[in-house]
UniProtKB/TrEMBL annotation:
Belongs to the tubulin family. It comes from the Eukaryota. The lineage of its organism: Eukaryota, Sar, Alveolata, Ciliophora, Intramacronucleata. This is Tubulin/FtsZ GTPase domain-containing protein. GO terms for molecular function: GTP binding. InterPro entries: Tubulin, Tubulin_FtsZ_GTPase.
Length: 441
């Protein structure tokens, strides 16, 4: 079994990770009281081994490491390995520079030793999943530093970062979030293989559409269910034997195009879907590829589709899903979207990578999630660049970073890198389609 190690960094990473392990417990072979049920003696057939260990004892332990600098870890009924829970008497002060230059020497060595112990217990280790928010100081600093160290220590492993990023049209509670996000983004682009974006505005739109007033618990639950569904192909037997590496191979056509977004079907949130809306292959596919269900506040119709990975659960027909994929590709190749804009896809790539797991989650007949690589992510990058530029011109709060050892050259380098990625996606969007453009006219 190809094991995955979960790293929960900062307040968001830990709280969302708690929800994630609650969902994983429902999807595993364990009872609700966390006691082990009868399992196969063959480790290759024991799918829980990917994210759990200590399977032959009374209680299995999640394969994760939890780190926070400024506060105690929240209470939960789930049993974790206490040796992998770290809470330090620091306060990052929402400052990326403080975490990078002052805390890293004391903390990273401790974390790397703990990570090494976990990896040595694995039979066929495949990679890391990082949960963090790059809005604040702890998540942005630790995710950047650890990803660098992991790239040096485990160059063959895949690092997937699930990141909460600043929203596009609204300001975050952290005033210096553009600084933290841009400085962290500059390092993560070199050290991580997959960067999956979420933002509070996109999560709020998803919850409001279901009649749920936005709060952080429901938002964390939404993200955790999405990640749980996305990782189901790694943990459960399906039509395609998937892994983090295979996901990177199918989703990332170029090394610089590694920014991804997610969607989740909403049938598990609302009674409306159970009573009035029939959930079939068409409805599931429609929700997964719709802008309305995107958990980042971007518009897919304003960009070009590169690739997409669909993780479907339930008794879903492969034939119907293939039909919907063909119809969708035909639609985006030959039809306009609203307001005169249209979405395209890159012809030379196989757009869809689909895995169907027949095992249902929490008795939901159909459920699915998608990871999409689209050039519409430039909306988020452009918004971040504008916020960063407004603060940098006035040098607002920059002295707090220079006091912690961050030089102005690092700000300029980070902004240049952000704009390079933005223009790389923009060039791909503006790439001439040749004959298709003539047909549209």
């Amino acid at each position: 079994m190809r094991e995955i190690l979960i790293l929960q960094l900062g307040g968001f990473g830990i709280k969302m990770g708690m929800k994630f392990w609650e969902e994983m417990l429902k999807d595993s072979e364990f009872c609700n009281d966390n006691e082990q049920v009868t399992q196969s003696n063959n480790h290759l057939l024991n799918t829980s081994n990917a994210v759990y260990y200590n399977l032959h004892e009374k209680k299995a332990l999640p394969r994760c490491i939890q780190v926070d600098l400024g506060q105690d870890l929240p209470y939960t009924n789930i049993d974790f390995n206490p040796c992998n829970q770290f809470s330090f008497n620091y306060s990052s002060g929402n400052n990326f520079g403080f975490v990078k230059n002052n805390c890293s020497n004391e903390i990273v060595d401790i974390l790397i030793d703990s990570i090494r112990q976990e990896v040595e217990q694995c039979d066929s280790f495949q990679g890391f999943q990082i949960f963090a928010s790059i809005i604040g100081g702890t998540g942005s600093g630790l995710s950047a530093i650890l990803s660098q160290k992991l790239e040096e220590e485990y160059s063959t492993a895949i690092t997937q970062c699930n990141l909460l990023v600043p929203s596009i049209k609204q300001d975050d509670l952290c005033v210096v979030s553009p600084y933290n996000s841009t400085l962290s983004f500059n390092i993560l682009m070199d050290s991580a293989q997959q960067l999956i974006f979420y933002d509070n505005q996109g999560l709020k739109q998803n919850l409001n559409r279901l009649g749920i007033q936005f709060n952080y618990d429901d938002a964390n639950l939404l993200v955790s269910q999405t990640i749980c569904c996305n990782s189901s192909p790694f943990r459960n037997p399906g039509d395609v034997n998937s892994s983090l590496r295979k996901l990177s191979t199918n989703l990332i056509p170029f090394p610089e195009l590694k920014l991804l977004t997610c969607s989740l079907t909403n049938n598990q949130f609302s009674d409306y879907y159970k009573e009035y809306l029939k959930m079939d292959e068409y409805q599931v596919f429609k929700e997964l590829m719709s802008t309305d269900h995107n958990q980042t506040s971007i518009n897919y119709t304003q960009g070009i589709f590169l690739t997409a990975a669909l993780s479907l659960r339930g008794n879903i027909s492969n034939k119907e899903i293939d039909l919907q994929k063909s119809l969708f590709e035909h639609f985006i190749d030959n039809s306009y979207y609203r307001r005169g804009s249209f979405a395209k896809k890159v012809k030379q790539f196989n757009m869809f990578f689909t895995n169907i797991c027949k095992k249902t989650l929490s008795n939901y007949e159909f459920m699915g999630s998608s990871i999409i690589n689209s050039s519409s992510i430039i909306e988020s990058l452009k918004s971040l660049d504008e916020k960063f530029n407004k603060m940098q011109i006035r040098k607002s709060y920059m002295y707090k970073y220079t006091q912690e050892g961050i030089e102005e050259e690092e700000f300029n380098e980070a902004q240049t890198r952000l704009r390079d990625i933005y223009h790389f996606y923009e060039d791909k969007f503006n790439e001439d389609d040749g004959e298709n453009n003539e047909n549209f006219e």
